[in-house]
Amino acid sequence: MGRGRVELKRIENKISRQVTFSKRRSGLLKKAHEISVLCDADVALIVFSTQGKLFEYSTDSSMENILERYERYSYAEQRLTTNDSEQQQNWSCQYPKLVSRIELLQRSTRNFLGDDLEPLSLRELQSLEQQLDTGLKRIRTRKNQLMHESISELQKKERALQVQNNILAKQVEQQKLVQNSASTSMPPHPLVSPLPLPNLTIGIARATEAAKNSENRGQAPPCSTSLVPPWMLRHPNNND
């Protein structure tokens, strides 16, 4: 049979209490060592027996370092808790002031919009009018400043575009001059190529020889079928 569940209360028998303390102390130290090794945690364990004996366990770092860390953490946490409580008290004191301030701002906003003017006195209305005039002057000043700045930017852009336009115009003129100089330096092309005339010379020689033969025979020269026209063929008798 397994062990039954032990009731958590003080053991009245002194001997049994001492035996249980020894066993549970050893198990507690063993568990502290295991958690420090498995989880790489800094563990500090302090146990005082009923007789006032001290039993302690700490990891590789000394017990003093762990206790100093504990004190710093406890002080910081306590300080944070104190600050939180002080802030809560301050918030509770500031809440009514903030509510009244919000109501005053909302009423002023309605007055600037022209609403809820009935409760205002003449002096309050004059003060409201002066505030509106001052606000309008500031608005107009800021508007004029922005307009001048925009005009200056546009003028700068205009000058930049004008400079770019002049550069492009100069480039176009240079291209035109280059094209004109190239066209004037080229030799003119002939409109009609001359026809070769080797056949004309041959025809004239043949016609002259035929005329001489016909003169010697006393006959008229035959009609030439060469490329030479008739008017170029002259009879020797015409020279007389």
TrEMBL record:
The keyword Methyltransferase does not apply. GO terms for molecular function: DNA-binding transcription factor activity; protein dimerization activity; RNA polymerase II transcription regulatory region sequence-specific DNA binding. One of its GO terms (cellular component) is nucleus. Keywords: DNA-binding, Nucleus, Transcription, Transcription regulation. InterPro entries: MADS-box/MEF2_TF (IPR050142), MEF2-like_N (IPR033896), TF_Kbox (IPR002487), TF_MADSbox (IPR002100), TF_MADSbox_sf (IPR036879). This is Transcription factor PnSAH3. SUPFAM superfamilies: SRF-like. One of its GO terms (biological process) is positive regulation of transcription by RNA polymerase II. Residues 1-61 form the MADS-box domain. Residues 211-227 have a biased composition (Polar residues). It comes from the Eukaryota. Transmembrane segments: none annotated. It is found in: Nucleus. Its main location: nucleus. Probable transcription factor. Residues 88-178 form the K-box domain. CDD domains: MADS_MEF2_like. Residues 210-240 are annotated as: Disordered. It holds the Pfam family K-box. Signal peptide: none annotated.
